[in-house]
């Protein structure tokens, strides 16, 4: 029996971005996508964030996901490069509804929650972020 937990899109979102060759190329090296704010930089941090909705009867969720890209303080890439990384990441996520892996979840929509914008870090490094809303359900029962 499927439950609302089977509709959680976050693991699929994170795995998609970690496997993205386009995002990796813009970041300049592998293993720079994850849920932590840690070196090496630039780095794309992917985290579920507050808000969204859950429908326990229809087993549907809207999960807001925050994408933050942090620049290096040693060799900064600049605002345009950070913005391009986010654009590539969002482009990968927008394609998620085209396929549903066995066992789901089925992602049926990915839409903007906020525009892509800068938000400087206290340590002086550049950071850009956006939030996308991922609409999902468990998919077909196996």
Walkthrough of the structure:
It contains 3 helices and 7 strands, in the order ααββββαβββ. It has 142 residues and is an alpha+beta fold. It has one domain: STM4215-like. Strands 1, 2, 3, 4, 5, 6 and 7 form a 7-stranded mixed β-sheet that branches. The longest helix is centred in the middle third of the chain and has 16 residues, at 79-94. The mean pLDDT is 94.
Keywords:
142 residues, STM4215-like, alpha+beta, single chain, seven-stranded mixed β-sheet, 3 helices
**CATH architecture tag:** 2-Layer Sandwich
Q: Structural class of the secondary structure composition?
A: alpha+beta
Distance between the termini: 9 Å
Counted up, domains total: 1
The best one-word shape is elongated
Q: Helicity, in percent? A: 10-25%
Radius of gyration: 16 Å
The CATH topology comes to: STM4215-like
**Percentage of β-strand residues:** 25-35%
The CATH C-level name is: Alpha Beta
Compressed to H and E, one letter per element, the order equals: HHEEEEHEEE
Mean pLDDT, as a whole number? 94
- DSSP, total strands: 7
Low-confidence stretches: none
Oligomer: single chain
Question: Number of helical runs?
Answer: 3
Profile the largest sheet: 7 strands, mixed
